[in-house]
Amino acid sequence: MEEHQQALFYTDAALPPDGFSDANRRAGLGIFVCFAGFQPSKSIYIRARRRVNSVLMAELAALVLAAKVAETLELRNATFYTDCRDLVLQLQKGEAQAFWSLRPLISQFLCLQDRCVFKVGKINRQENEIAHCLAMQAKAMSNHTLPSFSCHFLNHGIACDAIPALQDVTWGPVDLIDVICF
Ligand SMILES: [Zn+2]
Description:
Layout: E1 7-14, E2 25-35, E3 42-52, H1 55-72, E4 77-82, H2 85-93, H3 103-111, E5 117-122, H4 129-140, E6 148-151, H5 162-167, E7 175-181
Helix pairs in contact: 1-3
This protein binds zinc ion.
Zinc ion (ZN) is lined by residues 151, 153, 156, 160, 162-163, 181.
């Protein structure tokens, strides 16, 4: 997937604030992937849910989900954006210094970098509007059974490479709702 090398992943999570309800809350996760520098541009929208213990863990879970998508699509490098400053600070501290509750997910994030170079950037909330909306929608959705996958990208036609690859993944604790490619 040479043409996907300029992949920008916008990530966000939605859940009640820490201390608002029980510790094991279900967060909505939203990922907006934009493949820049290639015409016509292509994008992928992902909605998912996952149980978490804190806002920070939810934001990190969204980042790990995005990293898993990058790995699955065999990207060589990927840039991940979050609007959560605390998450960027925790990642900069590294696995050993970060909050203990975040370490398993940080370790997972680092492991996914084996074949792909990751960059993490902090953006403003306004710049993260699409991922934010996807996360809010995921949080509000009622229970579903199987994830749905669809491709509306005209130039893919019958040969969409992203959807078949993502359909094969075991998502673990992540409850994938849908993946839409445009
Ligand atoms: Zn597609």
